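Re: [help] complex structure
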Amino acid sequence: MGRELQFSRLVIAAYRLPFRFINYKSGYRAVQSTGGLVSAMLALSESFRNTEGSLSDNKIVWAGVTDSLPEDFNSGKIENEYFNIKPVFLPHKLNELYYGGFCNDLLWPLFHYFPSYSVFNKEYFSAYEEANHRFCEQMIKNILPGDFIWIHDYQLMMLPDMIRKHHPDATIGFFLHIPFPSFELFRLLPRHWRESLVGGMLGADLIGFHTNDYAQNFIKSVKRTLGYECKQNLIYTPHKVVKADVFPIGIDYDKFHSASLNKNVVGEKRKIKALLSDQKLIFSVDRLDYSKGLLHRLKGFETFLERYPQWRTKTVFNMVVVPSRDNIEKYREMKKEIESTVGRINGRFSTLSWRPIVYQYRSLSFNELVALYDISDVGLITPLRDGMNLVAKEYIASQNENRGVLILSEMAGAAAELTEALVINPADDIEVADSIFLALEMNRKEKNARIERMQKRISSYNVFTWARDFFDQTYDTIEGQRQMRVRILTRDISSLILQEFRLSSRRMLFLDYDGTLVSFARYPEQAVIDKHTLGIIQKLAEDDSTEVVIISGRTKDFLERQFGATRVTLVAEHGYFIREPYGSWLSSDNSETSWKRAVMPILTEYVSRCNGTFIEEKSGCLAWHYRNADVDFAQLRLNELRDDLSEMIRHKADLEILEGHKVLEIKSNKYNKAMVAMNLIEKGNYDFLLAAGDDKADEMLFRRLPMTAHTIRVGFMPSVARYSVPDIPHLVHFLKRLTE
Ligand code: GDG
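Output below.
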């Protein structure tokens, strides 16, 4: 099963514990809970017990909330053969505001696309933060080196970063079990909440989602909320690279597949068959929740009875609803509405000997559940939104007689994998009705072929492969971070560079301006150098044996205003103009710039086609800035503009496109930063060279400099530089050390 486990213990944080504590007369007893995550982890823990080697403890350590555990319960050790429990006590009021409030009154409906059900309450957010803190306290008391920390779901989105602050080198994975919504929904949250949730998740090394859509929605929210650079599924935070990837949760396939042959299940099946006579059985089971589309499903079934009267009396729909949250008004109302709809449909179509819907509000035993999965002719699983939906996978796994047809909502994460199901829109009652008809009429050969294909998929990517895939990807991400960290300009490395700097007799420093010495601003003229940084540059440049070169894409007038009074060499417009210390500006390129007349209308067109963008005209170049435009829309227009310009440039061999941070420039290709720098270096006999920069133009310079040069990239993006620093303050701090 893939690579060896790399951790010595698995430590889980999830809202719900894998036990419930029940107060019997004889005292409290821990009773194993069921449900998606617990079943998955139980299966995993069982597999650990059979794993030889690497694990120091094959019990899973699990932190979760409890409010029913009595104070005098021996909280030092709560464990069974699978789990070692670390309870997180939340006072009732706090839990109400946190779990009942922020989690289930706000995040649950919002992330399931029911924004009108969402309640935005400041107290909820404070409680969420507080509860995540309490989890953090419990976790940091228990974490050991070598642990794999796996945080689960929407109740704990702030926890990864909280733990990271205490344990910077911990291995942390986060998995979201529900959908991550489109940014248009996520942005309904107040800005600070958004930043806290997304920033909190980014404390993990790997963030897992069920589908690519959810992962992409998350990445977009990161870009829009925190402005971090993202390339494919990698997110470049100031401190490390985090991966957002897709891990569709699996089930313990063999458990379901073999259970349907077990004699107790066979007994259950026989009982059901006896009740049905020759009728076909349609089956559904869900928790009571508005996301499950229960009322829409009933409407679909009613439409089926209307449109296909030949099937009346020959089908029974067994709808099982598992009690959940029915202390909440909205759920109670929904339950009433379901019951009255069932009553109405039964009243409308029943005969003396036949009732179309058998509705049950209760939970089923495992044997009953598997028997119903296997015996039913149709599995009708039609949530309006669902992160994954394990019932759909369990239904397929339990098919032994290969007689069932799965009708599955396209809004369930499972639809991305179970493509041989009849995939429907749950809100379209006619489509639901027609699919039921199709399923009932489907020939055996086709049913078998569909089931077999789906069984192949879910038996190979089961809950174990899912977890192993998640662990492996986390370690791969950490390996990637490590490779970058080798290059981080640590204090030790900078001390060595400093020593070399002091021992050298002629030095040249190339410093880019925007993104290297000064942060980006909405408009270029607003990004002026601060006194502190300028003071450091002045101090460095005072020394006759050090040449400081400010090498930038900025105009000469702008650089003159910032550094006019400083003894530095200025290179403007990527090398179009050069000014030696206190000298006058010289142009390195005298070629004509009439091409600007042809390019300008194209850029103007793109300004009007993409709101927030603007043109900057310089002497030898034109720049299209898109910093202030919508990120994704600008990316679309950027791709089009690049194509348009490339087409034009093909006929003008001496032009090139240069891409920087949120800017695209067109200039002559007869000069660039690297060429200018090499010319300057050739003029002197330098024994110390250093260059710092943050974008593609600087990369060209890094590549051309001799191997002995110290090259530093600002920000953790892939780079040819020898070292990197996370941000501008780190670089400025390093430069300051050179002056000391
Ligand atoms: C989250 C996401 C995602 C249900 N009724 C009975 C019963 N069940 C078991 C099923 C299944 C589980 O509960 C429900 O599966 P879900 O997929 O709905 O999982 P949740 O934990 O509710 O929700 C969801 C999941 O996490 C996993 O990532 O798929 O989208 O919302 O295993 O078998 N089991 C028994 N009797 C019942 O009556 N024995």
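DSSP finds 24 helices and 30 strands in the chain.
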